[in-house]
Amino acid sequence: MISNVTQLQKSRSREANQKEQTGSTTTYTGKADIGGDWALYDTKGEAVTHASLAGKYYLIYFGFTYCPDVCPVSLMKVAKALDKVKASKEYAYFDLVPLFVSVDPDRDSNERIEEYTKIFHPDLIGLTNKTNSSPELKSILKSFKIHVSKIFLTEEDEEEDLKSMEENAPEVLKKMKEMDKKEKVDKANKDS
For residue 73, is it within any domain? Predict the structure, then answer.
């Protein structure tokens, strides 16, 4: 019994020493291995690079405009966070630029990206490149550790996503439906 108590005391003493040592000797060096130089285009076709935003902080979100529910819900959160930051007194000391990078330029036209970003926040800047396989797009995805791949949803998945959007973001869903309707009308007018 005395042996067990002695072992327990030694064990607790070792744990306490480790906690003290870890807390006092932990040092951090270097920086996060994410981000870097990049170059894309805004919705007007103008080049935008990391250098364009020198001296500013940017909040960057990667997604696509045909995203059924994750992107819209996430962008709503980004917009709310941005409004809170802008309302804070600390905002006077830094400039925060929100960016939406379309990872699917093959389907996301500049016009669609522009309309899509404005659904969420007037300051949200849409960026992309000419094709999904463009080296500049691939480069920024790699440097920010973003993995993209096309998946095809079943009808059941699409219905579930629609239900989620109706519950979580009905106003966004309404605006997205209006945007899709306008896009179909514009396409029909072009074709005639």
Answer: yes
Taking the CB of residue 119, how many other CB atoms lie within 10 A of it? 21
Domain that holds residue 69: 39-151
**Model confidence pLDDT, tens digit, residues 117-174:** 999 999 999 999 999 999 999 999 999 999 998 888 888 988 888 888 888 888 888 8
Q: What is the CATH number of the domain that holds 114?
A: 3.40.30.10
Average pLDDT along the chain: 86
> Which tokens go with 18?
């480790």
* Counted domains in the chain: 1
Give the span between the Cα atoms of 172 and 176, in whole angstroms: 6
Asked if the structure places residue 147 within a domain, the reply is yes
The tokens for 16 are: 């306490």
The reply to whether 157 falls in a domain is no
Classify strands 96-102 and 57-63 as parallel, antiparallel or unpaired. parallel
Residue 32 in this model has a pLDDT that exceeds 80: no
**Residue 170, phi-psi category: left (phi > 0), alpha (psi -120 to 50), beta (remainder):** alpha
Which pLDDT belongs to residue 1? 45
Residue-wise pLDDT for 60-108, tens only, equals 999 999 888 889 989 999 999 999 999 999 888 888 999 999 999 999 9
